[in-house]
Design brief:
Distance between the termini: 27 Å
Helix content: 40-55%
Radius of gyration: 27 Å
CATH superfamily of the largest domain: Endonuclease Chain A
CATH class of the largest domain: Alpha Beta
Number of helices: 22
Strand order of the largest sheet: 9-18-16-15-10-12-13-19
Strand content: 5-15%
CATH architecture of the largest domain: 2-Layer Sandwich
Number of domains: 4
Number of strands: 19
Length: 642
């Protein structure tokens, strides 16, 4: 049902000129409708099943005195077990309170909700997948790193097995529309495979465009695979459309299908946002595949989101994430290596070229120009061999090289290399010691950027570290929370956060408070228009408490902020994970940790462009609303479950 609201339209129209993709947005206001009924029915059936178990338990308590004593003992044992467990403090407090209030059935409800008991088989299956894929020949950067970057990379590597890499050209997008334009173009150029994994895939204009591209590529023999979460896409991806997708030769699988049974595993969702093309290009960020993410329809005002494109070695990490999840949902073993090797074609290693170069020498001098172009593409297509100059704030043309080529030889199209006088004798040595490249000129700060969106590609000197990583119940540690905590601890000058939900645990809360009191510029950007009123109340309550310590809290006017990013002076984290307990402890998430200057400048410019669109919230001592305070306190009890 479309809601006509002239006031909202005027607000959106006033906001649009400031949006980077305002010229393509249609002003609409719509509400979700379909899908909720299915979720409510499943929840109702699950609650009825739980109620039946509780009823039988109470009957036993009333019939047998010894069973009552048993229940008392179990409640005490369960509380002691909780106190010694690794659960976060808020979850412990909530569970202990529920166990005491719901005596004598509290312990029963707790154990029916313990993932270590009722999610054990899935954990074991995922553990086997991790072990089987742990010895793959992955690309990794073994050179020098800044000390703080090395510490963060060491934690992620030791916890998840993902490797830090360089040799990646990156592009930051401050909006969903601009990101999807490039993503569709990259998918249209795919030659081997396209992997897509999203929490939400919804029928609409965006998916129609994507499906057209995927259908054409699948017909051309490209391996196209899609994973979507059943809860996120519930009611938004019709069965008829899924049949069309599969009929087009596209493999599509559902993660954790919703069923009308009481299963604690239903609470664990695939919240990742990943697109991989040929193992050489990867996208991630806050965006899903639905019309609101490109502002093609309006659910909660202007939709603020972001994404990052990585071309090069970083794509291999995202390829591995998808392959592991694919094996998990399909329950089929297969060889990962062909898909991971395809990433090497995008950014070939010097070692591979050294081994193969002598065998592929040109047969005659007439073949020299073609050979030079081919060798340049295979060896120097990385960011360090891309020559660019600034031009009107757009992607820059190659800078002409000053070196002279032999008479009659043509210059390679894009890479800039010096002459190779004697290929047969010098190829191996020159690959071990690559020639000088033409360095691009880069802006020194965010103020020098022409716009928030930037497509500067790093040279070898300024290319940063990229470390894609995943989190989920397959890992013992709360990877998302720990990486965020590690980044927060490194901040010395600034700490900027953009997130749709702010329900952190005490570790993150205490760290933000400490940083603000130490003089660090701590800023948090939240939505001005909520999508879930109950979560929004808790988010504002948590954020407002931090303002007492000097944290600056902003809400973006007439907009829903869906961006999930952190920026400090020496690194950034961009991905799918919110600052809430679900992302920290329950959901399957992904992100990329990077100290790449291109990405950091883009994210910094995005923050700088967002702050003027926001209203800063200020703490006023003594100003309270009793009813709202009571409601928020009640909702805070259930915060660990939100």
């Amino acid at each position: 049902m479309r809601i006509e609201n002239r006031k909202l339209k005027r607000q959106y129209a006033a906001h649009m000129p400031k949006s980077p993709d305002g010229d393509i947005i249609r002003i609409k206001t719509e509400r979700k409708g379909i899908g909720k009924m299915k979720g409510m029915l499943i929840l109702l059936v699950a609650l009825l099943q739980l109620g039946l178990l509780v009823f039988l338990h109470l009957q036993l308590v009333n019939a047998f005195r010894w069973y009552l004593i048993f229940s008392v003992v179990m409640d005490i044992v369960t509380c002691l077990y909780l106190l010694g467990s690794s659960k976060n403090g808020r979850a412990k407090a909530v569970w202990i309170m529920l166990i005491l209030v719901l005596f004598p059935v509290g312990f029963l409800i707790f154990f029916l909700s313990d993932e270590r008991i009722f999610f054990r088989s899935s954990r074991k299956r995922y553990k086997k997948i991790l072990i089987a894929s742990s010895d793959l020949p992955l690309k990794k950067w073994e050179g020098d790193m800044p000390k703080l970057t090395a510490l963060a990379c060491a934690y992620i590597k030791n916890t998840t097995g993902y490797m830090p890499v360089k040799n990646t050209a990156a592009k930051y997008y401050p909006s969903g529309a601009s990101a999807f334009d490039d993503m569709l173009a990259d998918c249209a150029s795919a030659q081997r495979f396209i992997f897509i994994e999203y929490f939400i895939i919804a029928e609409g204009a965006l998916f129609s465009r994507l499906f057209g591209v995927l259908k054409e590529r699948a017909a051309a023999g490209v391996d196209v695979r899609i994973i979507y979460d059943d809860m996120g896409s519930s009611g938004r991806l019709p069965r008829s459309l899924k049949k069309q997708v599969r009929a087009a030769g596209i493999q599509m699988y559902t993660f954790n299908k919703l069923v009308p049974l009481y299963k604690i595993g239903m609470n664990y969702r695939d919240h990742r946002k990943i697109t991989v093309v040929d193992g050489r290009i990867a996208y991630t960020g806050g965006i899903n595949i639905a019309d609101e993410y490109v502002n093609e329809k309006r659910l909660y005002g202007y939709w603020k989101d972001n994404a990052v494109r990585m071309e090069g070695d970083a794509a291999q990490g995202f390829t591995l994430m998808f392959l592991r999840q694919w094996e998990f949902v399909t329950r089929k073993r297969f060889d990962y290596l062909p898909f991971l090797q395809s990433a090497e074609e995008g950014v070939s290693s010097a070692e591979q070229n050294t081994a193969e170069g002598v065998e592929n020498l040109p047969d005659s001098a007439e073949d020299l120009p073609d050979y030079l172009e081919s060798a340049a593409e295979k060896t120097f297509i990385n960011a360090e061999a891309t020559c660019k100059t600034q031009s009107d704030g757009l992607e820059n043309p190659p800078k002409p090289c000053t070196e002279e080529l032999p008479e009659g030889a043509e210059r390679a199209a894009e890479p800039c290399i010096e002459t190779l006088p004697d290929i047969a004798e010098n190829l191996s040595d020159r690959l071990k010691n690559p020639p000088a490249v033409c360095a691009e000129s880069s802006p020194d700060s965010a103020e020098d950027l022409p716009a928030a969106e930037t497509s500067l590609k790093s040279t070898e000197q300024e290319s940063g570290i990229f470390l894609p990583y995943a989190s989920g119940l397959e890992y013992r540690d709360p990877v998302v929370r720990d990486v965020y905590a590690g980044v927060l601890s490194q901040a010395r000058e600034r700490l900027w956060i953009m997130t749709p939900y702010f329900v952190p645990d005490e570790t993150i809360t205490n760290m933000l408070t400490s940083k603000a009191r130490s003089g660090v510029d701590v800023r948090i950007v939240l939505p001005g228009v909520p999508d879930k009123a109950y979560v929004y109340l808790i988010s504002l309550d948590n954020a407002d408490k931090l303002t007492r310590s000097g944290v600056k809290v902003y809400t973006m006017s007439d907009a829903f902020v869906h961006t999930k990013s952190v920026l400090i002076e020496n690194c950034a984290v961009i991905g799918s994970a919110n600052f809430d307990l679900r992302s920290f402890f329950q959901q399957y998430e992904n992100a990329v940790y990077t100290d790449d200057k291109t990405v950091m400048r883009g994210l910094e410019a995005d923050f700088e462009a967002t702050f003027p669109e926001c209203v800063q919230r200020n703490y006023v001592k003594g100003k309270t609303r009793p009813l709202r305070t009571l409601l928020t306190a009640i909702l805070q009890i259930f915060a660990p479950m939100m």
